[in-house]
Amino acid sequence: MKIAVAGDHGGFRLKNEVIRLLRESGIEFEDFGTFSEEPADYPDFALAVAEAVGGGKFERGILCCGTGIGVAVAANKVPGIRAAQCHDTFSARASREHNNANILTMGQRVIGPGLAGDIVKTWLQAEFQGGRHARRVKKISSIEQKYSRC
Ligand code: RB5
């Protein structure tokens, strides 16, 4: 599995923790920035990861900002993206099993690195359950298609 990772200045340290965990676990990833704590605009990094995942070059993405909200909102504008902000392991698992989330977002100002690590591990291990959930995720795609024609 290849993971696209990015975040703004508000998620810089959390993104580094995520990268450390991916490296330790031998999971392939690419870091799309930002590369310092200098102020940077979160939609730029959300777009880079969302396009990498939506375009099929990466199976999944992980985005960090101060809250995990801005990157989720921005990433979800890209067709094919289901970005889920998760700050607990229950939601992380459900976002995969029920919503087939392909991007995980987290906020550095909300959770610590220990919990973030558990969330990432849970999210990467959980699989989409399909069945009734597939029908619902298909309906999400239909909404996207309906408005892409406008
Ligand atoms: C940056 O200050 C902050 O607004 C950003 O990291 C994020 O939390 C936005 O949703």
Quick recap:
With 150 residues, this protein is α/β, with parallel strands linked by helices. The chain has helices at residues 12-24, 42-54, 69-75, 89-97, 113-125, 132-148, and strands at residues 2-7, 28-31, 60-65, 83-85, 103-107.
Instruction: State the helical fraction.
Output: 40-55%
Determine the structural class based on helices, strands and strand pairing: alpha/beta
The CATH level-2 architecture is identified as: 3-Layer(aba) Sandwich
CATH topology: Ribose 5-phosphate Isomerase B, Chain: A
Bound molecules: D-ribose
What would you give as the CATH superfamily? Answer: Sugar-phosphate isomerase, RpiB/LacA/LacB
* Total individual domains: 1
The neighbouring-strand order within the major sheet is 2-1-3-5-4
What gyration radius follows from the Cα positions, in whole Å? Answer: 14 Å
Average pLDDT confidence is 97
Low-confidence runs: none
